[in-house]
Amino acid sequence: MSSRFRKRRFDSSSPLERILMLLVVAIVVGITTGVLLPKISRPVGELTGEYTASGPAAQALDGLKVDDRPSVAGYDREAFGYRQTDEDGDGCDIREDVLARDLTQVMYKRRGSCQVKSGVLNDPYTARTIHFLRGPTTSTAVQIDHVVALQNAWQSGAKSWTTAQRYRYGNDPYNLLAVDGPSNEEKGSASAAYWLPTNSAYRCSYVSRQIGVKEKYGLTVTSQEKRAMKAVLHGCPAQEVPKR
What we know:
Number of strands: 5
Number of helices: 9
Strand content: 5-15%
Order of helices and strands: HHHHEEEEHHEHHH
Low-confidence stretches: none
Shape: globular
Helix content: 25-40%
Largest sheet: 3 strands, antiparallel
Distance between the termini: 75 Å
């Protein structure tokens, strides 16, 4: 093939091409900095509006009291009586009720039984489809998450409640979701400041439900938690608080 038809190779020694290369690098760095810097620097995030939000959920968040000195002293998970009540009187504990509510294709252990034998979960935290099967080694694939964790509730105001109030909270379907087991374990007692679902499409719904729970029970938020929630709601200004 004639050399005049060969593709011209990039010559980085050319002044013009070196300038073009530097421009491309500058653009890439600028875009990356503009996207990431507000997320890793609080002052920059505040200047760029990263922590501003509007809409119903954001308004509800602004109505919550801020407490930056929460204490977990005296916390005991058993104080919330999870699975110890039967508010609707159907003879089923709350885990079975939530499984029956959140799973599809539900099958029970036997006719008239409360216990869910199997079902399919479209997991909100990971966007995965999980096939639930009750068993010693399989049941934990789907767990029931307190959207506002019990420890978080304790340090946000529940430590001053009566036993009846704590039991009501610990078994409130509004604060419970059937979710991917490993994600629930990873979350632990973390607030939105430290943990969010990997399924980014669900984060607005997740944060708004946390706000709804805290509003319902008069719980507080920390400044850091509030900023994290605002950062999520920044991208969904029409987000509503889920109905109770």
